[in-house]
Amino acid sequence: MRIGILTSGGDCPGLNAVLRGFCKYCFNKIKDVEILGFLEGYAGLMNREYKQLTPADVENILDVGGTILGTSRQPYKLMTVKEGDAPTKLQMMVDNYKKLKLDVLVTLGGAGTHKTASLLSVEGCNVIGLPKTIDNDIYGTDVTFGFHTAVSIAADALKRIRTTADSHRRVFFVEVMGNKVGWLTLYAGVAAGADAILIPEIPYDEDKLAAFIAEKMKQRRSVVIAVAEGAMSVKEAAMSKKERRDYLVQAGGSPVTDRLASAMSAKTPFQCRSTILGHIQRGGEPCAFDKLLSTEIGAFGAHLAQVGRYGVTVCVRNNRLGFNILTDIAGRTKRVPSDGQLVLLCKDTGIYFGD
Ligand code: F6P
Question: Which of 126, 225, 230, 354 gives 196 a disulfide partner, CB atoms 3.0 to 4.6 angstroms apart?
Answer without folding.
Answer: 225
